[in-house]
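Sequence in, structure out.
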Amino acid sequence: MVALLLPMFVASHAFADDTPAALKFKMKNIDGKEVDLSKYKGRVLLVVNLASKWGLTPQYLQLQALHDKYNKKGLSVMGFPCNQFGKQEPGTNLEIKAFCTQRYDVTFDMFAKIDVNGETACGLYKHLTALDTPPKGAGKVSWNFEKFVIGKDGKVVARFEPRTKPDAPEVLKAIEAALAK
């Protein structure tokens, strides 16, 4: 009997450990509810740190357009407000949510305000910034609206500077290539 159960035990434990490193985190959404990022397994992710008081804030429109165009094809846009750069995201999560929905009609997944750099950086961003991901490479997030594309397999496939618009050809190419796999 033990010989019959051992393969099932090993298989169930192997299955439990197949969550990609980028999805092994739990984060709070904008409403304060814990979200296990493993729920995004098998989807392409566009992870962006956001701010509501900066010249690049209109990128919310492009992020929402990507969500509208590609969500049913397997893309999840994930917004992470951050106040580490010029104090450009000073509001509470409730204020940030109101701003995003009222001003930009945001319906993509928004998370609670986090730090993306330094000792207080959340685990997800510590992981993302440690990777040597083209075209930017490894290292600290330089400012708000830096973008990471994560493939369906959970591997980070691209990283783009803040001024690279969400609908720039190189970002679309990375997203579409990841969706095609």
